[in-house]
Write a structure and sequence with these properties.
GO molecular function, one term: acyl-phosphate glycerol-3-phosphate acyltransferase activity
Helix content: over 70%
Low-confidence stretches: none
Function: Catalyzes the transfer of an acyl group from acyl-phosphate (acyl-PO(4)) to glycerol-3-phosphate (G3P) to form lysophosphatidic acid (LPA). This enzyme utilizes acyl-phosphate as fatty acyl donor, but not acyl-CoA or acyl-ACP.
Strand content: under 5%
EC number: 2.3.1.275
Largest sheet: none
Shape: globular
Radius of gyration: 16 Å
Family: Belongs to the PlsY family.
Structural class: mainly alpha
Number of domains: 1
Number of strands: 0
Transmembrane segments: 6-27, 48-70, 76-96, 103-119, 125-157, 169-187
Order of helices and strands: HHHHHHHHHH
């Protein structure tokens, strides 16, 4: 009962489109009509500037952390499933006609929540972060680095939680569903990487 309520709360919090709110309130601009059209920090930064982009990224991270913190008072499994629901809400927001972001910032919020509230071990955040930075340095694609980081997290959780009780199975399942969500949302980017048309990071 409480877990289900937390999951619903996670989806609702995830559905808050901070990119849309900041764009319309402070810049009188709908970021969905510019750039890639995504309601995420990257597109906001391209359309409205680095300060707006940074604000959206921070708020998108924090909404997942808040949702997982609330759910952690129920159970570790509730926390991770609530984090997943929050990321789904970000990608398919109730308040923005189900057109959201690609779950990059929210995935990092998910990793922070796992580290702080599920396992209480900083390595569950820092190991994927190191993977992200290495892949970004090697390949210069945020999409590739994001996928590598979330897969690293799922593998780490699977290896360290493999005792096959009910809660462990729920945690492992949620972590792999999170990986599938990130890969799915970046499928077009993967195709562009294969075609050589994906935009690379130029400041590394």
């Amino acid at each position: 009962m409480y877990t289900a309520l937390c999951i619903i709360l996670g989806y609702v919090l995830g559905s808050i489109p901070f990119a849309l709110v900041i764009g319309k309130v402070f810049y009188k601009t709908d970021v969905r009509q510019h750039g890639s059209g995504n309601l995420g920090g990257s597109n906001t930064g391209r359309v409205l500037g680095s300060k707006a982009g940074a604000a959206v990224i921070l708020l998108d991270i924090l909404k997942v952390v808040l949702a997982m913190w609330i759910a952690s008072h129920v159970s570790a499994a509730a926390a991770i499933w609530t984090g997943l629901a929050c990321c789904v809400g970000h990608c398919f927001p109730l308040f923005a006609h189900f057109r959201g972001g690609k779950a990059v910032a929210t995935a990092f919020g998910f990793l922070v929540g796992i580290s702080a509230f599920v396992f209480r071990d900083p390595w569950f955040f820092f190991a994927p972060l190191v993977m992200f930075l290495i892949m970004l340095w090697l390949y210069k694609f945020v999409s590739v680095a994001s996928i590598a980081a979330i897969l690293c997290s799922s593998l780490l959780i699977t290896v360290l939680c493999w005792d096959m009780n009910a809660q462990s199975i729920m945690i492992i399942t949620a972590s792999w569903l999170m990986s599938i969500l990130v890969i799915w949302r970046h499928w077009a980017n993967i195709q562009r990487v294969r075609e050589g048309s994906e935009t690379a990071v130029t400041w590394l």
